[in-house]
Amino acid sequence: MLFCLWFFEADLRFFHVYRFSFDTVLPLFVKSTFNWTSTAAGLIFICVMVPGFSAPLVGILADRYGARWPSLAGFVASVPLLVCLRFVTENTIGQKVLLGALLALLGMTLTFCNTPLMAEITYAIEEKEKRRPGMWGEKGVYGIGYGLFTTAFALGGTAGSLLSGYVNAGPGWGTMTWALAIWMASGIPVVAIWLGGKPSKRLEARQQEESRGESRPGRSVV
Fold this sequence. Notes:
By secondary structure, the chain is an all-alpha fold. The chain is built from 10 helices and no strands.
C-alpha cells in the first residue's frame, strides 16, 4: 500500500514539475522578452500564487465528490494552458496581459491538482485501516505517508528545474512549454486510474459488506 502511494505521488510530482519549471525559467524569460527587472520578475509570480487562496474550496469539493475528479480537471485544463504559453513572444502590453492571465489560470489548475492529492493520502490510509484495523500499529503511518509525499515533491522539483533549464537553453521557450504540456498530459491516466473515488462512498460500501457478512451466520443459526 505504501509502495503504491509512493509510486503514485512520485509520478504525480514528476508530472507536476511545471511549478518548479516556472521558478527556474520564468524570471529569465520575462527579463529577455520584456526587459523586466528582478522586482518585476518576482511580482509576476503573484499571478500563480493568488489562486492558491481558493484551496479550501477545492478541498470541500474533494471531501464531497472525491479527489479524482477535481484533480483530473486540473490536469486536463493545464495542458492547453501550457501550450498557449508559447504564443507569448513579443514585448507588447497585450502579450504581458496574456502571460499574466495564463499564469493565473495555471495557478488555479495547480490548486485543483495539488489539494485533492494531499487529501488522498489520508483517504487511502484510513480506507486500508477500515479494512484491516490495527494493521498500521497504534500510531499509524501518516508520518511515512506525508514523508513520501515530500520526497516525491523534491524529486519533481529537481526534475522540473533540470528539464526546463536544459530545454529552454536549447530549443527555447516554445519547445519547453510543449514539453511541459506533454508531461502533464501523461499524468492524466495516472490520476484517472489510481486516484480513489468519493471517500464516504468507499467506506460505506466496505461497512455494508462487512455488516452483511456478519449478519448471515446469525440468521442461519436461528
